[in-house]
Amino acid sequence: MQLLKVAEREFEIALDDAALDSADFGVWWPIERKHTERSRNIRVRRLAVRKGLVSKFKQIPFAQFYRDHLKKYAGVRWLARRLNWFKVYSSYVNLLTAVLYSKHAREWRKVLALADFVKKKGVASCDLVDAEQIEIPQPMVYPSGAREYPASFLDQYSFPRLFVATINDAKVYGGTNLILADDGMVICHDLYDFAHDYTAEELHGLTFHDHDNKHIRWLSYDEAPEVVPICATFVDACAVNYAHWLTEVLPRIALFCSDR
What we know:
By secondary structure, the protein is α+β, with helices and mostly antiparallel strands.
C-alpha cells in the first residue's frame, strides 16, 4: 500500500511537470486527448495550447545561454533590461507573421474604447452601476519604517460607470478581452491606456501594438470560428490566473446576472 501511494505521488508530480511544460498561460489541458462536449448549442473544443512569445523566447539558444551562464551577474541583468531584448524579439516575430504567414495580420486595425464605440456607432447599451468614488482604508505596514517601500496608497479611487453594450457581428477570441467589430475595428475596455499599458496580449504574441498611432495588428486568426447567435462574453487576457479571474471576471459575471 505504501509503495502504491509513492507511485501515485510520482505520477502526480509527472503530470504537474507536464503541465508546466505544455502550458503557456499557467494552465494545463490534456494535449493528446481529443475531447468534445456540448453546452446547450455551443460546441466546446479543447485544443493544444499555442505557445506564446514568452515560451518561444526562452527556447532560443541566446536566451538559454543567458539564463544558464549570464543571468547570475547583476550587471548583465541590468544591461538586458536596458536593451529590452524581448521587445526586439517580439518585433521580429511580428515582422515574420505579418509579412510571411498571415495576410490578416498585415492589416493595422484602429482601436476604440467601448464607450467611444457605443457613442460613435449608436450601439444599444444599459447602465448597471453609476460612477462612484470609494474611500480606501490605509493598510498597516510592518515594520513602520518600511512604509515608503510599497507603492503609494491612495485615500480614494474613482470608478467609472459600468454598462453592457450589444455589439452585432462581433468576434471574440480566447485569451483576450479585445473584441473585433464587423468593420475590423478593435474594441478595448475604457481604462486601457495605449501610451503606458503593456498588455498580456502583446506579451503572449496575440497582438502587436503601435502605441504612437493607436493601432493593432491582430496576429491570431480563426479560419473556422464557432457561430453563436446571442451570447455574453467574459473572456479576459489574465482569466487563467485564479486571482485575476476572482477579482476581475467573476464580479462582471455576478453583476451581469443580477441585472433584470
